[in-house]
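Notes from hallway chat w/ T.B., transcribed later so I don't forget. T.B. wanted the structure written out for a chain they're using in a teaching module, and asked if we could keep both sequence and structure tokens in one place. Agreed to drop them here.
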Amino acid sequence: MLPTEENKDDFFKIALSSSLVLYGFDGKNLKILIRERATAPFKGAFILPSTYILPNDSIEGNIQKLLEEKIGISNIYLEQLKAFTKVFRNPLGRVINVAFYGLIKIDDRLLLKNQEEGNVWVNVEEVPELAYDHNEIIEYAKERLKRRVKRRPIGFNLLPNEFTILQLQTLYEKSFGKELDKRNFRKKLFKSKLILDTGKFIKPKNARKASKLYTFDKELYQTMKLKGYDITF
């Protein structure tokens, strides 16, 4: 059916929104950012950071604005997931949600900003029941992250500039949702030549010995990100 002068208003009653599955890594746990909804519907419930889109606004522009104003960051790895279109997903009316996911490094400045804005970081394994269909969006984002981490070296967007092999393996395990063989992981990692030895060491609290610190080869990283690669652990 096509819109006519008589029924065109019926076709243009659909609203547009966008939600963000924002991943962060603190060295031990892969986390997702959620926030408490301040107004109805679902006042007091947790949701993903979200925004409605005006007819003349771009979706990408609104997500960037959301990142800057409510989360305190910009210029991060960001990728569109898909549109979530269930008819009754929003009690206010028909709302199409175009969701994204992003990757950031968690630091003290970011944590302070998030606390001021009422944002909460939760482990990916401990995400509570969210309003709307936001748990469904997160599940979709988890599957996308698994594929991307396997095919591209995007995981380095979640790590500090210098990191240990244990931190890197933990990140991969949290992303895949399974344990990885330590020896096999290291073998394939060093074969990829993605990481460089900094010559520095760090001794984590309660650790018996210091661990080497590595950084990633930025030039090789960019090449592999563009071409795609496959490390199957």
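Follow-up for T.B.: Strands lie at 15-25, 30-36, 46-47, 50-53, 77-84, 95-105, 119-123, 195-202, 211-216. Might be a good example for the class.
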